[in-house]
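Researcher: Going back to the complex we discussed earlier. I've cleaned up the inputs and rechecked each line, so this should be the final set. Can you rerun the prediction on the complete assembly and write out the structure?
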Amino acid sequence: MDAQLAEVRALEAEIAALRRACEEPRAAGEDSWRAQKSLREIFFSDSEGWASSKDLRSHLGHFFSELRFLSTLTGISIRNYSFFLEDLTNTEKKEKSIMKVLQRHRLSGNCRMITFQLEFQILEIQNKESLSSVITDLNIIMEPTEYSELSDFVSRAEERRDLLMFFRSLHFFVEWCEYRKRTFEHFKEKYPAAVHLPEGAASSCMAVRSTCQPGFELVIVWRVQIDEEGKVLPKLDLLPKAPQQALKLDQNRALETAPLSFRALLGTLGIEAALESLIQSLCTADYN
Amino acid sequence: MEWANDGKSRGGVLAHLERLEIEVNRSRKNLEDLQRAQAVESALGTKIHKLRCLRDELRAEVKQRQARVKASTVNVEPDQTPEISEQEVAERRKENVKAILQAYRFTGLSGKLTSRGVCVCISTAFEGNLLDSYFIDLVIQKPLRIHHHSIPVFIPLEEISAKYLQTNIQHFLFCLCEYLNAYAGRKYQADRLQSDFAAFLAGPLRRNSLCNLLSFTYKVEPRGQSFPFCARLLYKDLTTALPTDVTVTYQGTDALSSSWEEQRASHENLFFSKPLHQVFTSFARKGEKLDMSLVS
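Model: Rerun complete. Updated structure for the full complex:
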């Protein structure tokens, strides 16, 4: 608080000096020299905003290091931020001891490929016993909007004004989507004939076909869901496809029970190993 | 409850931290100077911003005048003119970056680099209410260690750091974040119940410091004389702000009629699914209706 007050005074003093400098008549010689001198005095004074260029650059480097650290840690890169305050203190007698300030914040940035723009308001109420800070409004705009799972999540976050959960869940959601993409690409590379990505690696499905039994196909649908509490979880399902004749021959109902068995496999081996074993079991027929 | 992200390696963050150690050692003195000079955020921010804009305008104007008298003046230091604009630009960038660093608190994790490593600040919130922040000061060495912190003693910090601190700092901090936010949420609910709905409680709310075991005797109408219900809420899962075990028992002097039993059961459900203070808000609102239905 004191530092800020000092800065305000320094700024006011400087503005006054600058104003004087502007008013000085445009004459060569002594008058101009005096104006120069007062500016020089200001530039080399000690207050915080007046560090010499060299110090400023090293401070800036330090700040950028902090920024890099925080954006790596949280997964969120904030590019722009601004806010302003509105004093809502009611000057009526009975509410005099209560201070109310409305803060309006605007922030934008990205989490990998997803960019967001947020506008929110915080109402700060200070009374005799305590200070409370409440988010009273939250507006979120996100692009790209092709992740349909996100739109529900965003509405929920806006409704609950849960800013912290929004950022945390967004980070994990993006991480899961990227992991899914890497996994699909990995299998495509390893089994180029068997694995197909009909909607691309960034989508939610991967199809596995046997090259010698073209009618059979196993489609793995991998969704990334965000639950009510903001927890991000992968949800994988297996959709087997087979020709009619095969279904008739399937007396052990292997195809019907395949989705359930796949779930069990996931639980035991984890995602990558389960997918690997699924692909291999379909492909061993090819190599025999 | 495990944070569901499959424990992938975070080698990138540790390697990054090693690079930071080198940078930090190089500018140790400047860091210390800077720390002393850092201003605390306050409502004067706006005023300062406005004054700065005004000052920038005036500077530009003075610069123009300087350029005009330059040719005819003795003692002019030509270096000063470019100095101003370079400084202005650097100043503006610095302000922008500082503001963004402040904004990180809205993501739940913020912090700053220290001469030893990094000091991380964890913010907590519950239903839009911004609550306490906690800090944890980490020393970047092998092994990583905690220099000091403001985490309450009943949060299982040793357990969490034993599991994750050395292998995955991000996971460690996110896990702490989960525990602290859940604790802050439980505490907020208990505080609100005590302060806003004292009229509904017989005697004080019994609670432990972790706020995961609460018991109280209550009534549903503000005007009623007796306190017919006794509730016990247990939050076994320390990462949530809703209870895992709820027991509501009927203590009233009337015989246990079916309507009391219905109420008792519905209260149990309410406590499971809604935050504590919201349950009592709904009691306060339904007070009138319940009055009529109790005549049986």
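Model: Worth noting: The longest helix of chain A spans residues 163-190.
Researcher: Good, that matches what I expected from the previous run.
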